[in-house]
Amino acid sequence: MRGGPKTLIVALVALLLAVGLAACGGGDSSGSTAAESSSQGQAESKPSSDAPKQDAKDKKTGEADEGKSKSGSGPSASSFTPQQHSDSGGGSTQFKVKGGDNSVQEFGEEGDTSEFDAAAVALHNFLDARAEGNWAAACDYMSKATVESFEKLGAQSRQAGDTSCSAVLEKVTNPAAKGAMKAEAEKANVGSLRIEGEQAFVIYTGIDGTIMAMPMANEGGDWKVASLAGTPLN
After folding, report:
1. Residues 6+ apart with CB under 8 A from 69
2. How far apart are CA 80 and CA 125, in angstroms?
């Protein structure tokens, strides 16, 4: 029974990566690189009298970029502001299905209050950042192994370009899902944290009362989400 949830984690990540790989053959970045090189050459050939204007332009551009991620065009992780959420708790017993597969609900042991609160905050912050399209912040709340999987996915795409976690996450996320992601972030109500060693599952109620399980990983005392999305349990 303990092998079930671990297999679920691997299978879910593999599925997400397979779907994302097909979506990663995006536009070629060589055109913008060439344009930037051409622009740089023109700037260098201008008379020295234009230097003050160029300096002012560079300063303005730098100020505009402060709120953007260093990797990609999205907002930076530092611009994300965590929101307050209220969770009902109650433990995993409330989510057990009579005669059903309760491997997640019975995984490990129920986390104590402090662990529950920390894992719930990590989940909420991830869902909120994802809903806002702040991919850099979303990656900050993802486990190291999950981030590395996305970076590897980016490196394997036909036209790699920016292979950072935030850039790849933005590419593989369907813009049409923005409404659903926002609704899930607003509705998420954590009821249980099941822990075994450094692995865990946060069980929460999502959209339309769907019970979801999000795999988690403990890294240096901090809980991180170990998947791009939760798995329905009902």
Report:
1. 75, 76, 77, 135, 136, 166
2. 9
According to CATH, what is the number of the domain 88-234?
A: 3.10.450
Query: Residue 116, Cα to own-chain centre: how many angstroms?
Result: 20
Pull the structure tokens for residue 83: 């929101």
Is residue 36 very low, low, confident or very high in pLDDT (cuts 50, 70, 90)? Answer: very low
Residue 107, helix vs strand vs coil: coil
Q: Extract the tokens encoding 104.
A: 């997640």
Beta bridge pairs of residue 222: 219
The residue type at 32: S
Phi, psi of 160 (to 5 degrees): -55, -55
Give the model confidence (pLDDT) of 178-216 as tens digits: 999 999 999 999 999 999 999 999 999 999 999 999 999
Helical residues (DSSP H) of 71-134, grouped into ranges: 113-132
Structure tokens at 20: 């994302």
Is the pLDDT score of 70 beyond 60?
no
Instruction: Compute how many other C-beta atoms are within 10 angstroms of the C-beta atom of residue 97.
Output: 11
The H or E element containing residue 21 is helix 3-23
Q: How far apart are CA 190 and CA 38, in angstroms?
A: 53
